[in-house]
């Protein structure tokens, strides 16, 4: 709270605050690790994650120093991101998400690159995203769009590594967003999100409005994918009397329009 007030109300004291944080990291790192560990209680873990998020927000050399010295092994990260009480805005998962996103929002290119080099940190927040609040989901998507996807200082190779197939799948699952209030039902029933259902949506996107729009948008920016879409469509376009066939043909028409447009653009450019 004190550091937040310095950031928002007393910027003239930021240099002193940064010095204090450097001292904390250099002299009390073992205490930080202790508070982060699974042996600590929920309150302690929340407090330390919130503190670390604010320290990152102070900027300077602090974010890179944290990334260099802080031990965040996969098992510890997994314990942070698992849902325990999603209806609580200050749950451990949310605190960890704010901590990780703070490195991106800080905006420094070296810091962003350092975070992206530790791929498991950012990728850890995507599973079970469908049970996060709409505010958290919006924050994640907006931050990624602004500081990663639209960041010319992040190479295409790194972007492809970050947005791996599992990450993309979890983003697509958001079409079936459940929200925090449905997590308890999911836990009680002890079931995983119906991945087969989601995969079906991508295998036959024309049968579902939002996936259909998504695929069309993808092909709009990547016309090279149109050919593969035709191959996928081939088994479904044999004439038959059914509503599903009509839906397929409408989708084919949209793909044809894209194909024609991309063909015309070849001559324009």
Automatic annotation (TrEMBL):
InterPro entries: URB1, URB1_N. Residues 3-185, 204-246 form the URB1 N-terminal domain. GO terms for cellular component: nucleolus. It holds the Pfam family Npa1. One of its GO terms (biological process) is maturation of LSU-rRNA from tricistronic rRNA transcript (SSU-rRNA, 5.8S rRNA, LSU-rRNA). It comes from the Eukaryota. This is Nucleolar pre-ribosomal-associated protein 1. The lineage of its organism: Eukaryota, Metazoa, Ecdysozoa, Arthropoda, Hexapoda.
